[in-house]
Design a protein that fits this description.
Blueprint (H helix, E strand, L loop, with lengths): L20 H9 L5 E8 L5 E7 L4 E7 L7 H13 L4 H9 E6 L4 H6 L20 H13 L3 E7 L5 E2 L8 E4 L11 H20 L4 E3 L9 H7 L4 E6 L9 H20 L7 H5 L4 E2 L2 E7 L3 H4 L6 E11 L2 E8 L10 E7 L3 H9 L8
Parallel strand pairs: 3-4, 3-5, 5-9, 7-8, 11-14
Antiparallel strand pairs: 1-2, 2-4, 6-10, 7-9, 11-12, 12-13
Helix pairs in contact: 2-8, 6-8
Pfam families: Peptidase_M14
Protein name: Peptidase M14 domain-containing protein
Organism: marine sediment metagenome
Length: 367
C-alpha cells in the first residue's frame, strides 16, 4: 500500500476531545452508498447507536470506539479511516473486495455526551462482558454474534501517565493481545492478535520510534477483549495515548489511523505470518512514571512560596460548555515511580516559567 498524504485524509470538522454523535452525524450520514449505515441499538437514554459497514470481502473486521465515553481519539481515527475508504483508488477497491469492515464509532453515546467513562447507569461497559446488564453491552454482543468477525479491534484512550518501559518517552500508542485465561496462556487466536500487533508496531516505529508500549495483560473475563478472546476470536486492544503537547490528541489520531490501515493491509494481503509472537513480546510494557507538569520550587525564599521541593501536577479533564478543560491538581502517587517524568517541567527560579505558572493559575498549588 503506497504512502498516503494524511493531511488529505484528516477530517478537520471532527476534532478536540469532546466527541458525540452530534459531531460525526453529518459525516456518517453523508457517506456514499458504498457504506451501509444502520442503527444497531439504543443507549440507556434512548440515543441511537450506529454501525457503518464497508466492503463485501470474506475477511471480517469489527471495530468499536468510545465504549468509554470520554475516550474519543480512536473515534476521530475511524472517521479518518472512513474518509480514506471514500476514495476511488485501487487500494480501497482491494480492501472492499477482500474485507468487510463493521465500525461502531460511538458505542456509549450517553457517556460520550456526559464525557464520562461509564454509561448513564454509571456502569463501566468494559466490565460488563459476562453480565450484559446494560443495553450498550448487549448491542455489542449482538453485533459480534451476528457479524461473526475474524478480528476485533477494541479502541480506547489511555491516560497521560504512561511511558514506554523505563524510558522517558510517553506511550503514544499501546497495544494488547488480551488474555483468555487466568494463566495468560497463548492460543491460536491470541497468537494471531500478537502477530497483527507486531505488524502494526513495525509501521508505527517508522513514524514514532520508541513511543509504542504494551498494555498490562492481566486477565478479567468481564472485560470485552478477554471475553471475545475466550470465544476464539483474535481481538486487539488499541490505546491512544499522549504525544508531545498534543492534549487534543490530533497527532495521536493520525498514528491510530496509520495502525488501523496497516492492520487491514496485512489481513488483505495475507502477510500476517511474516510477523512473530516474539516481536509482540519485545514491545516494552507500559510504565506509569509520567505526570503532566513538574514544578521545581528551588527559589522558595525569594518567591515566598512553601518549600515543596518538587510538586507533581496531573490534569483533571472537566467538561465545561461542551469543551474539555484541563484542571491542574497536585498528584499523589499510589506507588512512587522509580523515576519521575513530566510532559512539562517548570522552575520557580525561572522568570518565564514563573510567568507561565501565574498565567495558568498553578502558583496556588505551591502556596
Amino acid at each position: 500500500m503506497k504512502e498516503l498524504n494524511y493531511s488529505e485524509i484528516y477530517v478537520p470538522n471532527v476534532k478536540g476531545r469532546y466527541i458525540t454523535y452530534d459531531h460525526i452525524n453529518d459525516f456518517i450520514n453523508g457517506l456514499p452508498n458504498t457504506f451501509k449505515l444502520d442503527e444497531v441499538g439504543q443507549s440507556v437514554r434512548g440515543e441511537s447507536i450506529k454501525s457503518i459497514t464497508f466492503g463485501n470481502g470474506p475477511k471480517r473486521i469489527l471495530m468499536w470506539s468510545q465504549m468509554h465515553g470520554n475516550e474519543s481519539t480512536t473515534t476521530k481515527a475511524v472517521i479518518d479511516l472512513l474518509n480514506y475508504l471514500k476514495q476511488n483508488v485501487t487500494e480501497v477497491s482491494d480492501i472492499s473486495n477482500a474485507c468487510t469492515l463493521k465500525i461502531i464509532p460511538i458505542l456509549n453515546p450517553d457517556g460520550a455526551r456526559d464525557y464520562t467513562r461509564v454509561n448513564a447507569n454509571k456502569i463501566d461497559l468494559n466490565r460488563d462482558a459476562q453480565d450484559l446488564s446494560q443495553p450498550e453491552s448487549r448491542v455489542l454482543k449482538n453485533v459480534f454474534e451476528d457479524f461473526k468477525p475474524d478480528f476485533c479491534f477494541n479502541l480506547h484512550d489511555q491516560r497521560t501517565i504512561f511511558n514506554v518501559g523505563d524510558t522517558n518517552k510517553p506511550a503514544t500508542v499501546s497495544f494488547l493481545a488480551p488474555a483468555f485465561d487466568m494463566e495468560r496462556n497463548n492460543s491460536p487466536s491470541r497468537k494471531l492478535s500478537m502477530q497483527l500487533i507486531a505488524a502494526m508496531n513495525s509501521r508505527l516505529q517508522e513514524v514514532i520510534p520508541g513511543h509504542v508500549g504494551r498494555y498490562d495483560d492481566g486477565f478479567n473475563a468481564n472485560c470485552v477483549g478477554d471475553a471475545f478472546q475466550m470465544s476464539k476470536t483474535p481481538t486487539i486492544l488499541f490505546e491512544a495515548g499522549h504525544y508531545f503537547e498534543d492534549y487534543d490528541r490530533d497527532k495521536t489520531r493520525a498514528y491510530i489511523f496509520k495502525a488501523l490501515l496497516k492492520g487491514i493491509s496485512i489481513l488483505l494481503n495475507n502477510t500476517i505470518s511474516n510477523y512473530k509472537v516474539e516481536q509482540y513480546l519485545s514491545i516494552p510494557e507500559n510504565g506509569k512514571q509520567f505526570v503532566d507538569v513538574v514544578i521545581k520550587n528551588d527559589n522558595y525564599i525569594s518567591n515566598h512560596l512553601t518549600k515543596n521541593g518538587v510538586v507533581a501536577i496531573q490534569y483533571k479533564e472537566v467538561l465545561n460548555n461542551d469543551k474539555v478543560e484541563f484542571k491542574p491538581e497536585v498528584h499523589v502517587f499510589e506507588k512512587e515511580p522509580k523515576e519521575l517524568f513530566a510532559h512539562k517541567t517548570l522552575n520557580c527560579n525561572d522568570d518565564n516559567d514563573l510567568k507561565w505558572l501565574k498565567e495558568n493559575d498553578l502558583l496556588n498549588l505551591l502556596s
